[in-house]
Write a structure and sequence with these properties.
OB fold (Dihydrolipoamide Acetyltransferase, E2P); binds adenosine-5'-triphosphate; binds manganese (II) ion; eight-stranded mixed beta sheet; 14 helices
């Protein structure tokens, strides 16, 4: 007999399974004994809700029932019936049960409910079995799917940019090295430095910090592209919003100026939030109830609210005039901290904000230079509870301006020859941005630590599992 997923048994309407024999397989969440009946709450991961299994204990072997404990895995065949009990519409009257795997009551970590998120982080191999993490990772899947759906519907092409990169211009200092050299005894040059010509690729290589530069090559050929893949940053920032390995979505568009870029970013975020509201309501309701009673309200609000757009300079003005005490003082030219970003979003405007035209000295070399000589056509999207969720810009398409900026910033032009050639041959105005996938996940799930929205988080001093 074929297994039916619990989501299908619970949600099918009309329900073809009712009063029929069905087979379910899953993990036991709780077992409750009463006089002649045992009630098992079974979860198979397909949905947050458990299915109740009603077991007449006269019909089953006592030692089998004793071995069925929280965490054990069973297969149940029985009749799906309308439930008489409260809290569930259907239940299964068990006819036969197979025990696939026991879970020792004394050693199984999730034997009891109510563990802290910290404890669960240390048990990342099992935390996926909890209601919370089941909800989070189902939503994570839905968001990844919606991202591809959004860009596919708009005629963008998904471009696979490399994970191992030979250029270190963007993230010098914050990149992980990739090498097969023996670090205890590396080949040396005459001056004592490591001889990377003997390394696997014949040169130093790193894990990518962004697919953008390669994405631009795609945009200047295919028109509309996006990347969606893992990126790596070796910054020692142990915050609740930074990971060492995180996923990023980076659309890159030929013939888009910064306004088109902002329009796309806003439409994109609203699309994803609406997708979650339409497809993940059971999981969102759980998170709303357990973690943040204003989650659904916030999602519904952002989904329909026009984002505020203003320049960095105007934002600095607002921050300077506010009577808020900031840990990091504000003046024109500083990089905004998340406390500043959140003040603008949560206190001042009370809605998402897009800031543009940042000082060139705090932004990357490739951003389009404004005529004032001081600012660039950058745009950051700032979100409630998060701060920066998207960073992007119109790109500098002028060869001389770009090359000058590269020299000014002390970047070795030789490592970027291929990138500069796009501005030499058929250059075009273009724009793009990067959305941190886990920052989006923080917003959609109301989790407060970014380590709780990726199955196996990597952070400084933490790469277990
Ligand atoms: P921040 O100022 O928040 O550290 P950033 O300006 O360094 O971010 P960008 O290089 O602009 O980040 O990257 C684009 C997006 O990727 C950011 O807007 C953010 O959503 C996400 N992001 C950046 N760094 C991280 C990280 N270490 N972990 C998770 N997401 C990140
Ligand atoms: Mn940024």
């Amino acid at each position: 007999m074929k297994r039916i997923k619990i989501i299908d048994l619970i949600k099918s309407d009309p329900n073809p399974y009712i009063n029929n024999q069905v087979k379910v397989e899953g993990w036991v969440r709780t077992k409750r004994d009463s006089k002649n009946v045992v009630f098992i709450a079974l979860n198979d991961g397909s949905i947050i809700h458990h299915l109740q299994i009603v077991v007449d204990n006269n019909k089953f072997n006592e030692s089998l029932l004793k071995d069925i404990t929280t965490g054990s895995c069973i297969s149940v065949t029985g009749i799906l019936t309308s439930s008489q009990g409260q809290g569930q519409a259907v239940e299964i009257i068990a006819e036969s049960i197979t025990l696939y795997g026991t879970a020792d009551v004394n050693t199984y970590q999730l034997q009891k409910k109510g563990h802290t998120l910290e404890f669960l982080r240390e048990n990342a191999h099992l935390r996926i079995r909890t209601n919370t993490f089941g909800a989070i990772f189902r939503i994570r899947h839905a968001m990844a799917f919606a991202i591809h759906k959004f860009y596919n519907e708009k005629g963008f092409f998904w471009m696979h940019t490399p994970i191992i990169t030979g250029s270190d211009c963007e993230g010098a200092g914050s990149m992980f090295n990739v090498t097969t050299l023996d670090m205890n005894n590396p080949p040396r040059q005459e001056d004592g430095s490591i001889d990377y010509s003997k390394d696997f690729f014949g040169k130093p290589t790193h894990l990518t910090v962004s697919g953008q530069l390669e994405g631009e090559l795609g945009a200047l050929a295919l028109g509309l592209v996006y990347t969606f893949g893992p990126t790596f940053r070796a910054e020692n920032s142990n915050t609740s919003r930074h990971l060492s390995e995180f996923w990023m979505i980076e659309p890159e568009m030929a013939f888009y100026d910064i306004h088109d870029n902002m329009d796309l970013a806003e439409e994109f975020l609203k699309y994803l939030i609406n997708y979650a509201l339409e497809h993940c309501m059971d999981d969102l309701e759980f998170l709303n109830k357990m973690y943040d009673k204003s989650l659904l309200e916030r999602l519904n609000f952002v989904a329909v609210t026009k984002f505020e757009r203003l320049t960095y300079s105007a934002a600095i003005d607002i921050l300077e005039k506010s009577d808020q005490k900031f840990e990091f003082p504000v003046s024109w030219g500083v990089d905004l901290q998340s406390e500043h970003e959140r003040y603008l979003v949560e206190k001042h405007f009370k809605k998402p904000v897009i800031l543009t035209d940042y000082p060139k000295d705090i932004k990357a070399f490739y951003m389009k230079q404004n005529d004032d000589g001081k600012t660039v056509r950058a745009m950051d999207v700032l979100f409630p509870t998060i701060g920066e969720i998207i960073g992007g810009s119109q790109r500098e398409e002028n060869y001389d301006k770009l090359s000058n900026r590269i020299h000014e910033m002390g970047i070795d032009e030789k490592t970027l020859w291929w990138y500069l050639e796009t501005r030499k041959f058929g250059t075009a105005p273009h724009s793009g941005f990067g959305l941190g996938f886990e920052r989006l996940m923080l917003f959609v799930t109301a989790m407060s630590n970014i380590r709780d929205v990726i199955p196996f988080p990597r952070a400084p001093l933490s790469a277990d599992f």
